[in-house]
């Protein structure tokens, strides 16, 4: 049997699953907050640098966003992409919203946008052959780098 070392997963396995909303309660990988939105690293990323942006208000549908919230949310999305450009220099992005549990939303009650950096070589044999994704950087290290990049001019 092959083994993949992923020590950050132990907290997920051992801890009792919280019924609290991660966007309302969990701020361990918070990158920044604005008047209406927040940006945070995904604790269980699809790829290195996977960030989520969400409105501060706990709503589940895009149609419930006020105009100023929608504008702020997309400004946050652009700010995240700028930070990722500085720190990780990806070649592209997958950006998406899963609306409802049927559409794949893990947190259907709180609208959020996924920003997943992509590189030409990030899909290698591991996901295809072993159904395993390798994340090459710790969340703590990446969080520090992204926070530091915010204080540096472009």
Question: Could you please describe the fold and organization of this structure?
Answer:
The protein is of the alpha+beta class. Helices cover 29% and strands 16% of the residues. The chain has helices spanning 9-14, 67-87, 125-130, 139-150; strands at residues 30-33, 37-41, 51-55, 92-96, 113-118. β1 (30-33) and β2 (37-41) form a beta hairpin. 20% of the residues are buried. The mean pLDDT is 83.
How are the secondary structure elements laid out?
Blueprint: H1 9-14, E1 30-33, E2 37-41, E3 51-55, H2 67-87, E4 92-96, E5 113-118, H3 125-130, H4 139-150
Antiparallel strand pairs: 1-2, 2-3, 3-5, 4-5
Structural class: alpha+beta
User: How would you name the CATH homologous superfamily?
Assistant: HIT-like
At the fold tier of CATH, the topology name is HIT family, subunit A
Residues in helices, as a percent range: 25-40%
> What is the CA-CA span between the terminal residues?
47 Å
Spatial sequence of strands, sheet with the most strands: 1-2-3-5-4
The radius of gyration computed from the alpha-carbon positions, rounded to a whole number of angstroms, is 16 Å
Helical stretch count?
4
Basic shape: globular
Mean pLDDT: 83
Give the ordered list of helices and strands: HEEEHEEHH
The CATH class, by name, is: Alpha Beta
Topology, number of strands: 5
**Describe the biggest sheet?**
5 strands, antiparallel
Beta fraction of the residues?
15-25%
Low-pLDDT segments, ≥5 res: none
Index terms:
alpha+beta; about 150 residues; HIT family, subunit A; globular; about 15% strand; five-stranded antiparallel sheet
């Amino acid at each position: 049997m092959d083994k993949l070392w992923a020590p950050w997963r132990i907290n997920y396995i051992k801890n009792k699953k919280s019924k609290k909303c991660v966007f309302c309660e969990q701020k361990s990988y918070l990158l920044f907050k604005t008047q209406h939105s927040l940006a945070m690293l995904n604790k269980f990323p699809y790829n290195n640098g996977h960030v989520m942006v969400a409105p501060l208000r706990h709503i589940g549908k895009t149609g419930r966003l006020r105009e100023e919230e929608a504008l702020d949310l997309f400004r946050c999305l652009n700010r995240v992409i700028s930070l990722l450009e500085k720190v990780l220099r990806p070649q592209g992005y997958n950006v998406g919203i899963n609306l409802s549990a049927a559409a794949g939303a893990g947190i259907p009650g709180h609208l959020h946008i996924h920003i997943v950096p992509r590189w030409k070589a990030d899909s290698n044999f591991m996901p295809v052959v072993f159904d395993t994704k390798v994340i090459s950087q710790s969340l703590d290290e990446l969080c520090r780098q992204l926070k530091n990049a915010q204080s540096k001019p472009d």
